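Pilot study result, target chain (228 residues):
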Amino acid sequence: AHAALLGQRDGIVISHQTAAQLWGGSVRPSAQIHLAVHGDHRIKRSEIKLHRYRYPMDTSRVLGLPVTSPLMTFAHLARDLDLIDLVALGDSLVRAGRLTPEAAVAHAQTWPGQMRHKIALASALIRSGVDSPQETRLRLLLTMAGLPEPTADIRVTAEDGTLLRRLDLGYAQCRLAVEYDGRWHLQGDQPERDRVRKEDLQTLGWDIITVDATQLYEDPEAVVAQVH
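Predicted structure:
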């Protein structure tokens, strides 16, 4: 990104996937470095993608580099990402401390560019406390299938307020936890730790449904049916 800016005129900033990665967002890496500019300009290099806009860039700096703000970066990527991936990006930027769900909703209402409806819809689905894009996809799968939206980042506490366990997703009113298990759950002593954790939660009256990548991506209907 630094090299791509060398020799460029003032006002050109890092944007899109490149900016999202610098902000700590979860987004598929691009083969190109993405830059943005207000006005007309051209860069004849295949490894650089320049985006031109009629409105000024809302910018900040990361590692000393000029970068589109987290909110503008999120809005710009609405053209490139589908709705699910856009929400996952928003969740990850919240996790990285770069924006809040409330700020995203407010920003969408005043967005001067294109894709306003999609940006507004995705912003309304951003949540705090989401640890991974897979958790975002699991939450949206259940919600878009017509089930009540599960709460993210449920804290199970003792009567004195002591934190006992933290749950990815779930329905606290009926004590149902819905957890996404990545591959790291199969490594080392993690299976034993997961077993103890599950027994502790069951003792506290919780039912636990665990979902892995195969179930989420290859048999989502079964996941929805099980939670239902």
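One observation from the pilot: The two ends are 47 Å apart (CA to CA). A full batch analysis is planned for the follow-on phase.
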